[in-house]
Structures are given as structure tokens and as C-alpha cells.
Amino acid sequence: MDTAVAVALAWQEAANQQDEAGVLARSAPDIRVLGPRGEARGHEVLVAWLRRAGLTLASRRLYARGDTVVIEQHGVWRSIETGDVVGEADVATLFRIAVSSRMKERSMTQTSDSTEGIVRQFWAAMEANDWAAAAALFADDYVLHWPQSGERIRDGANFVAINASYPAAGRWQFRVERLVVAGDTAVTDVAVTDGAVTARAITFTTVRNGRIAEQVEYWPDPFAAPAWRAAWVERDPFAA
User: Fold this and answer.
1) Structure pTM?
2) What is the rounded CA–CA span in Å between residue 151 and residue 220?
3) Over the stretch 106-128, which tens digit does the pLDDT of each residue have?
4) Counted domains in the chain
5) Within a domain: 240
6) How far apart are the C-alpha atoms of 76 and 54, rounded to whole Å?
7) Are residues 97 and 128 in the same domain?
8) What is the C-alpha to C-alpha distance for residues 22 and 80, in angstroms, rounded to an integer?
9) Domain range enclosing 64
């Protein structure tokens, strides 16, 4: 993955996770922010925006040339207080990345070739609905297990075919809510929707020799909260 593209995608994901430290780590101290309300500079502007925006951005298409990356996105705004959706729109963000030699070396070793980098590339391809690009990350003996249905999918061609043939109401959207890495294994919690159905996928991905060798995936169904424990719980605004 190109270094500038990797930085832009990592910045966007940190913003989606409300990870202030992650956003600032990928932003120059004098970062220039331009939007419909004008122009401002600096980390304080970013932090203030993160705390009030309630915005999640899902990538649709990406364009890159040199140090410039443009990501076409679908934005969803949620109330900070309740988590309810208050607006949606198709938008685009232009990133201009100042890539140092040290950053480039780190990106090559930790973003493109590492377990985390490869898994992020996989979900970026899934978000783009580019099943072939996702399958291009697979090892020759790749296998995907769906324990709940007792099925497994072998090789990239079958993976591409099943995703392309899946009956969907619209374009699939994938949002990585959490990613945990230990050695050659990554676990992701991903929100999935086609506009009509909303689901959650918990995926255990094993990477060997720079390729995805195996995935074990669970699709937990939501269920109504029982009334008996209502006095001790509250509604989670981030629930699927």
C-alpha cells in the first residue's frame, strides 16, 4: 500500500474511533483544515472537531497521486449525547501527506507487511466492495470458516463468487469498530450493512508470510434486552 494512502486511511480510522491521540499522531502540529465554514490550523482545532462532530466516514472510492490522497466517503453524523443518527451525506476529503523517510520505512514494515497492515488492507477492500482486491491478499491455501452454519470457503475464487452473488439490498458498507493484534493473528469487530440489514462480524484472521491464510468468522445476532435487568443497565448508543 502506498505510504500516503496508508497514512490517510489510518487517520480516517482513528477519527472514526474518536481516537484523539491517533489522529494527532498522524497530523502535523500546524495542520491546515479547510471546510464549508472556513479555514483553521492546529491540533486544538482537530480535537474540538472530533469532540463535537459525531461523524463516521465510510470509504467508497480512493484516488492518490504523489503526496495527495482524495477519499470519496459516506458520512454519518450521530448525536454526541444519544448516539442517534442526525444526518447522512456523501462527502470527500482531500489529504496532503508530508511523508518523511522514517515514516515511509515504518509504513512499509508496519502498515503494508505486518499482520495489522494486511488486515486493514483487507477491510479497506471490503469497504470498497472490491472482492477481488480482498482475495488478492489470500494465501494459495486460504480457507474461511463459518462455524455457525458449518460451512467453509476455500480459495479466493470462491470467496469472490460468494460475495458477488450474495443477495443484498444495496452496496455493502463495512466499518471496523475494533482491531486487536497478537503476533500473526488479528481479531476484528466490524459493523456491516447493505442499507436494509445491519449485522456484526467478529473475524479471527491468521497471516502467514505476508498473506491471509485463514479466517474464522462469527456473525452474532442482536437480541432484545430482557426487562428484568433494566434497572441496572442503560442503552448503548453504539449498539448495532
Assistant:
1) 0.56
2) 16
3) 444 444 458 888 898 899 889 88
4) 2
5) no
6) 8
7) no
8) 20
9) 3-105
